[in-house]
Design goal:
heterodimer, A: D-Maltodextrin-Binding Protein, domain 2, D-Maltodextrin-Binding Protein, domain 2, 2 domains, 5-stranded mixed β-sheet, 3-stranded parallel β-sheet, B: mainly alpha, MetI-like fold
Chain lengths: 337, 364
């Protein structure tokens, strides 16, 4: 296995070296469609709706880039990818962006020939307990039976957390997330642990979702965001600033609904964002209204969050870490100027 | 003079006719059978009503949202609103007719070939093998005035059927050639066939698919990008032909040597002997094996979900991830299972029919 991964890494580098010459932006514009790698199905992040349109937070990141580059958020070809093939698909040029619930880690960022652009969702492992237990904090879980999905980093994080806090637990391991929920429902364990973004989805699967609560503690860091190939800094900038523009737009109160009125605003920050003043799209070789197109067609970060995973969706995930920096979260984007 | 009138036949004892007689004979013929019957009856009574309640009586059929599922049973609404997606994947709705037409035409052609006493079978067969694939390609993919539908939009049952049909279409002829090659007395074809068969049989299908999807693109030049579906199809076809070859070789070995010697004695050439004498008999004996391989292939197509192709099973699974419809995985799996069962069971029934039709004496 070691050998295989070595060969794969070597090949990754060869390919990334050969790809560096072609500009992704020109390729995408020539093709007139953005190729975007998404998950084959993850509630709130990427899933096909009843009409067969892909929806979700990861999906909207790609639609925003298409709006900025091609002026049409619908010019995206979504390529559903499994966890194993995602990096190859990006490396081999099958996709231009990987927006597939991918955690930013040192190894991935430095050894795969990839660049993580910006975190568009701060995730982390959390706990769900049944309400009648009366537990308010994960610190009170000493001696609990905990349902986990086998073979995930969740297991390791859990062991670390309980060791650090000198608590004991009993693991009840299941194979799939569906089985884990059924086990929790049947009372085989007091607690269910998984990434917090998933816990809300799992909660809906319970017969009585209102009987379970998600605890506030997060015990691991899972920053998720779009990934691009290393070696094409122009493209890297475009994807990075697409996310930044959405966050800045939320901070300035520019939404998809009021963006046209905002064009009349005298606030220089808003005028720069909407391409009426300042550097506009020059540095990225985009048209001046690139950010306007993103906000008009996809929305600002807050809108995208609420629509896909927040209060506007059945998942009802709270903003938490993903709130803006001036509202208690850590979403912070550099200024557009 | 009195004529002797025989006493009319007495009816058979009431315990040996009617329901009681049938039950005695078939269900309670020995103590062991009685126990088994009662046991089976218990299981049916215990488990069938809840299943029927869940699947039919308490099930929710009407409506179009999650809120319609208020009764305790299955929520078939979930399957109903997604049915076209499960059938056609992301194929544009106004182009569905193309898929239906392509499969309809294939159905007609196959029926023509299978039903006895239809005229001009050989012409239809030639049409199916040579012309139909072109028609099907144009209908599915586009061209000749039809808008192009790229393969990433193909999905659902349609993709499952395409994978299975193309796999079978290539596996049978390649399998025959490989089987003949392996039994050939010429060293080079034999060695090539042996290496091919053992190589492909030695790796699991999941590896083949994974290689085709993950490794292959890395080794290809940048501007040469072969479609993911085509890569998977080539992998499946090669893999299945290796299996098919071994099934057919079994049939060839079952034939007594006298058959080929007799063909030689009649002065038939190698190919004449093969096509007129050996293969018809060999293929007939291995019908169960061939159909078995086909059924296996049909079910194995679900493995493409590990390379992100949206076949029936994987599109059903991705529908579970819709936040509006979380928690209906059982309904989805039952539906997918039922569809797979219908196809596999029909194939198996047809093979039994075929065996009976072709049975010309060797069967006991």
């Amino acid at each position: 296995m070691k050998k295989l991964s070595f060969i794969m890494v070597a090949v990754f580098f060869m390919i990334s070296a050969s790809l560096a010459s072609a500009s992704t932006l020109e390729e995408v514009q020539k093709r007139d469609v953005l190729q975007c790698g998404v998950s084959t199905g993850l509630p709130g992040f990427s899933n096909p709706d009843e009409k067969g349109n892909w929806t979700g937070l990861d999906v909207d990141a790609c639609r925003a880039v298409a709006a900025a580059v091609l002026h049409d958020a619908n010019k995206v070809k979504f390529v559903p990818l499994t966890a194993k093939e995602r990096f190859t698909a990006l490396q081999s040029g099958e996709i231009d962006i990987l927006s597939r619930n991918t955690t930013w880690t040192l190894t991935r960022d430095t050894s795969l020939g990839l660049n993580f652009t910006h975190t568009d969702y701060y995730d982390g492992q959390g706990f769900m307990v049944s309400k009648k237990l009366g537990v308010k904090s994960a610190k009170e879980l000493d001696g609990a039976a905990i349902c986990i999905q086998a073979g995930t980093t969740t297991e390791l994080n859990l062991a670390d957390y309980f060791k650090q806090n000198k608590m004991k637990y009993q693991a009840v391991v299941f194979d799939t997330s569906d089985q884990t929920v059924k086990g929790f429902e049947a009372g085989r364990c007091d607690v269910l642990t998984s990434d917090q973004s998933q816990l809300y989805g799992l909660r809906i699967k319970l017969a009585k979702p209102e009987d379970a609560v998600v605890l506030p503690e997060i015990i691991s860091k899972e920053p998720l965001g779009p990934v691009v190939r290393q070696g094409d800094d122009g493209w890297f900038n475009i994807v990075k600033w697409t996310i930044f523009a959405m966050i800045d737009a939320e901070e300035m109160g520019v939404t998809s609904k009021n963006v046209d009125e905002m064009k009349k605003s005298t606030d220089p920050n808003i005028r720069r964002l909407l391409g009426l003043e300042g550097i506009k799209g020059k540095g990225m070789n985009l048209s001046d209204d690139w950010a306007y197109q993103i906000i008009k067609q996809v929305g600002n970060y807050g809108e995208v969050f609420e629509r896909n995973v927040g209060q506007g969706s059945p998942l009802k995930i709270k903003r938490g870490l993903n709130a803006l920096w001036n509202k208690g979260g850590i979403q912070y984007a550099p200024p557009i100027r | 003079m009195s004529v002797h009138t025989p006493h009319p036949d007495l009816p058979p004892p009431s315990t040996s006719v009617g329901i009681i007689g049938w039950a005695r004979k078939n269900l309670f013929s020995s103590p062991l059978n009685s126990v088994l019957t009662l046991g089976a009856l218990y299981l049916v009574v215990r488990f069938l009503p809840p299943v029927i309640n869940w699947a039919i009586l308490d099930a929710n059929w009407a409506g179009s949202t999650r809120d319609a599922c208020t009764d305790g049973g299955a929520c078939w609404v979930f399957v109903k609103v997604r049915l076209t997606q499960f059938m056609f994947g992301f194929y544009p709705a106004d182009q569905y007719w193309r898929v239906i037409l392509a499969f309809g035409l294939l159905g007609v052609l196959i029926a023509w070939l299978l039903i006895e006493k239809t005229p001009k079978k050989s012409w239809v067969a030639a049409f199916t093998i040579l012309v139909y694939p072109i028609i099907a390609f144009v209908l599915f993919y586009g061209g000749l005035g039809l808008p192009v539908v790229e393969t990433n939009k193909w999905g659902g049952l349609m993709l499952t059927l395409i994978l299975a049909t193309i796999g079978m279409f290539f596996a049978l002829p390649f399998g025959i050639i490989l089987a003949l090659g392996r039994r050939s007395s010429m060293p080079i074809p034999r060695a090539l066939s042996v290496v091919f068969i053992e190589l492909w049989r030695g790796v699991p299908l999941i590896t083949v698919l994974f290689m085709s999807s993950v490794m292959l693109p890395l080794f290809m030049p940048e501007d040469l990008r072969i479609d993911k579906l085509v890569r998977a199809l080539v992998g499946i076809s090669l893999f299945q032909s290796a299996y098919m070859a071994e099934v057919i070789r079994g049939g060839l070995q079952a034939l007594p040597k006298g058959q080929s010697e007799a063909a030689d004695a009649l002065g038939l050439s190698y190919w004449q002997a093969m096509f007129l004498v050996i293969l018809p008999q060999a293929l007939k004996t291995v019908i169960p094996g061939i159909v078995n391989t086909f059924i296996e292939l049909f079910k194995d197509t679900t493995l493409v979900l590990i390379i992100g192709l949206m076949d029936l099973l994987s599109i059903v699974q991705s529908a579970f991830a819709d936040p509006k419809w979380l928690g209906f995985s059982v309904e989805g799996y039952v539906f997918a299972g039922l569809v797979y069962w219908i196809f596999c069971f029909s194939m198996s029934r047809y093979s039994q029919h075929l065996e009976r039709k072709l049975h010309t004496g060797h069967k006991r």
